[in-house]
Design goal:
heterodimer, A: alpha+beta, 54% helix, 17% strand, elongated, B: 237 residues, six-stranded mixed β-sheet, globular
Chain lengths: 411, 237
Amino acid sequence: MKLSAWQPFEWVVAIRFLQEGKVQTTFILIGIAIGVAVIVFMSALLSGMQSNFVNRVLTGQAHVQVFNPKETVRSLYHLDGGQFDWSTRQVPMQRLKSIDQWQYLLRQLNDMPEIKVVSPSVTGSALVVRGETSRAVTVTGVLPEVYFKVISLPDKTVLGQAQINSESILIGTELALDLGLAVGDKLRLSAANGRQLLLTVTGIFDFGNKGANSRYTFIAFRNAQNLFDLAGGVTVIDLVMHDVYQAEIKSREITMLTGLQADSWIKTNEQFFTAVKAQTTANTAIRFFVALSVGFGIASVLVVSVVQRSREIGILRAMGITRGQVLRVFLLQGGLLGLGGSLLGSGIGATALYLWQHYMRNADGSVMFMLSFDRALLLQAMLLATLTGLLSAYAPALRAAKMDPVLAIKG
Amino acid sequence: MMSVTAMPTTNRSPVLQLNGIRKSFNLGEANETEVLHGIDLTLFPGEFCAVIGPSGSGKSTFLNTIGLLDRPTAGHLRINGVDTTDLNNAQLTDLRGHSIGFVFQYHHLLSAFTALENVVMPMFGDAGLMDEHMQVRGSALLDKVGLTPWLHAKAGHLSGGQQQRVAVARALAMQPTLILADEPTGNLDSKSADSVFELLREVCRDHHTAVLFVTHNPLLSARCDRTIQVVDGLVLA
């Protein structure tokens, strides 16, 4: 490297010192690179797993469901004594009833900018009867034009068509197997109130979940209203948010606003989020300890370098080089090691991600889950490594800057 | 207290003035040791002064104090008329960088750099950024010390004599008024030693640079304008 006009003194000296200690520089760069690669790969793996799970969960469920709160028995209050009546109270049966003023509520929800889709539905339990066999199922009466924006049934339909009209029903693959049903077959739905519907299977779906495939059925909105004796009523309003992670906040807001119960997908998948939290904590701990080991690696190399170069530092100081310049020379070395190592590490991490994508497959040969090489993650890792380099270089750099030139020259 | 005041060789102001310079180590402690016991010395531009004395007599401390690498415990030290007593570290560094050139026994070149880069290093450090004039000046200085063919040779690839010549050229880079040479010929064969000595004499003569030349070689000290002897922290004529 020739000395060029644009190169500052500290930069030139730092680069030359690093170049001269080739073996040391190479080893520490490899060390940093491995650390950064671990961070990049682990982070991408965890975020890939999480987003994959979120996608899987949200393809079969609304972001927020609004419904009537459970009925409770209120305590009687004696006006004269101001005491509660502590007599034994029986928990009431939960009757199926319509959300009060649901059309007005629908307009309110539609006006909220955070909400993308609002879909009313009627949901209840019924028996599917075919010949001598019957199965208990959850019947959801939907308006296909909006409900398919909540759950894309056409994408999940594996046989027939996701067509919902007054005479059709969509059932899951498990239920079809249990009852020996195929597209075009007829079945009878029987509600607890004695009402019945005779419907034709137009489509068979697969949610990727055995329970859902044996329990869920979808019929026309008005059919469900009739079946459950809820003419003009709605039992559930499904919502899709623009930002899925805003669902919990919005659901609380809706509860406060309407007095209805609003459950977000975050709440209904609490265990998943506990696992995510544990994973994130583990990832943070891994990042911290990797950064710590990278930092100590850089610091130890620079401490050795300061000792080795004490005569040179002394002579630089004797010829008028300031303490600040010496400090910057060693800080720069730390920063450059961090930056160089992180670039190398990002490359290794990206290669590892590619290999994961290429070789780690599901039993059917499909990609286990998509991992993305996030630029923000790359920048974050580079920034972290460079900062770690600078921080860990500070102590040796300060030692070099404070070196007594007389002692340094003596060595 | 013994003192030596050089007779001025010219009418110009002195480059170096020492008045009652004392230097103690472990100040205030039980093992406090005074190494320099009150030295007076005046050096004028163009003076070539040999410093002789046995090992452990305080020559290095004497030179380090003059070179502003060590602060005296007492007394006044003036470089080009600037009293250094109240200067802070940054001001001392600046004065040192601009007024004093060092040539050490072990040359102490930066091994990662070429001969030319070593020579321009003081100018580069002072300016912060490289400019072409520095390289031109560095080349001229190396030409002066007879190392033009080795301009771009790494410092480590040069012989001992050549390295010491580079060190002399580097000491001249900032056009100092004073050069402190601490046994620069101590590790050289007689031919190289003579060559380095002559080089410093030439610099002293041509640029009116004052030179303090520490040596154990009586033949070389005899060829200097003046000789001062340091014995047990005192300067003898």
